Amino acid sequence: MPTTKKNNDALKKVAVMDLGTNSARVLFAKIEKGDLVYRKKIIETTRLGEGVDKNHALTKRAMRDTLEAVQKFYDMSQKEGYFLFKIIGTSALRDVTNQEKFLEEIQDITGCPVDIIDGINEAELGYYGVVNSLSTHEKNLVIDIGGGSTELIFGDQSVDLIESLDIGAVRLTDRCISEDPPSRENLIFLKKEIDRIIDDFIERNNQYSFKRVIGIGGTITTLSAINLEMEKYNPEKIQESCFNEKTLEKIIQDFIQKLLSKRKEIKGLDPKRGDIIIAGSIILQRLMYKFAFDKIFISDYDNLEGILFKEYIS
Fold it and tell me: Which of 17, 206, 300, 310 gets the most CB atoms within 10 Å of its CB?
């Protein structure tokens, strides 16, 4: 199927998929006269990037679960009349050597090739999603903490700087956390790994400034859902919510004092994210400390909406 820009009047219902390190996601969108008037996201935690940091290969379990999610999403799109516009793959698929047959199987299911995008393109798409969803003309720092990488984007209505850092919630859980709950040594190692990457970035890019910080992606939206004590995830309440460093510290302390089985019971936390939320949260905490900001605003819009704004709606 083609993945280039289409006439908005020719098609009203479109779908895009993102095969991420932690989860496979689909966005179902309705477009009227060039405006995004309806959107619905469905997420399946498939942990495609499990073990990738160490082995540089996809596991059979991860490929099987992701293929099942792709089949489910595709069947839904066909049943409900959505045109599958594009499928993207991110960090996990960038970092492995055994993806060829897996990608062929996805194309066999959907008829749509998987576009494996680099971290810069991923961040740019996330930024398109944010700037088209928030009424802001300020200098922004947008942070997207994913499973395999963290993207930092500086800009206002246009992008000044994009960089993808090799610190993600799945990657650093695999690398740094070996005990449940994590030991003091685990946490020291985790923070050391995060700080090493952030310090290198700051040393090379200390000329960029911002007035507002916006967070996107599963780790950050989950933290907001926990702060809001959501029984069920509500994207409208997440959009433009915020929390500060003190709130984040309180949430992290709760995480690290609980066994995984108890952590999974925290209101607002998807149980399937319970094992990686500590690493993801501490990535954000170290970014807040290193960049000296106290408050972060949250956007439920991300690279899936960004694909539409960049390649379909604009």
Answer: 17
